Amino acid sequence: MKILEHLKSVKTHPTAEMVYNVVKKDIPSITLATVYRNLNCLSEDGKIVKLEINGEFRFDADMGKHQHCVCKKCGKILDVFQKEISEYALKKIKSTDFVPSGVQVIFYGNCKHENKRAKNNKRPEIVKDNSGVKKR
Amino acid sequence: MKILEHLKSVKTHPTAEMVYNVVKKDIPSITLATVYRNLNCLSEDGKIVKLEINGEFRFDADMGKHQHCVCKKCGKILDVFQKEISEYALKKIKSTDFVPSGVQVIFYGNCKHENKRAKNNKRPEIVKDNSGVKKR
DNA sequence: CTCTTATTGATAATTATTATTAATAGATAT
DNA sequence: ATATCTATTAATAATAATTATCAATAAGAG
Ligand SMILES: [Mn+2]
Ligand SMILES: [Mn+2]
Ligand SMILES: [Zn+2]
Ligand SMILES: [Zn+2]
Fold this sequence. Notes:
The first copy, chain A, has 136 residues and is an alpha+beta fold.
């Protein structure tokens, strides 16, 4: 309950560990494995969405049909609420040997950073700057 | 070269390990780490696509704009070549604080298994059958 | 052929996630 | 209320995938 409650209160698409770090303030005895277990159950039950971004799972309690943007620089995940995009994809897809039940739309690009000094960049830049690296 | 060559010859979206198991037949000295290294370089250079599905990375040498279907039962990944779907998404998205450079469309659902007797089912079913598991 | 640098193989380390299990909490029956 | 049964948890340990390290090797330049 606390886990779902917390997930509903944020729009950051946290990892299991991020959820854990917040929820343990309320339930100090809770363990990371319990958070994982509950997040997985919730997503199997269709109460939350489990996303896979940059090598880790992210969780989202917003079950409305929406899309996501992932910043290639800072890794931030933003919501896009334009259900026509998902609907178009599902309406248009014609596959003889596959029956789709849902679609996931992820945009990759760059978010508008306060380019002066990134203020809420918790993790180091994911940008892969190859300048100066010469290939042969 | 052998890695890229192999990737271009298949449409299975293999994992690094799958690529490794094939390429090592040609280059017995090759190591899994080298395969990972090269796959990552290739994807950074835009020569291949790196997908993230069911907790692991999948690689695809088909750089044409296309979409994917993931079977929730067997994990198989199928291609869909309908560029209008990705184009629609990119054209329609309006985000004030994000500049998209690409979009990834993944359909989830079920592929048409030869349900009489699955003939090329290499890996065990991923299906999560909760029948008989009562929640309280 | 020698020198310099990039890439590899071998392996260790890391990270995220899942599995195990005895203990606990919660519900149910007495 | 107390005993009993059962689902969930905490506390690990284990696993799986991926990345890092680094000495040895291969490739290119001169
Ligand atoms: Mn979201
Ligand atoms: Mn493909
Ligand atoms: Zn950003
Ligand atoms: Zn299937």
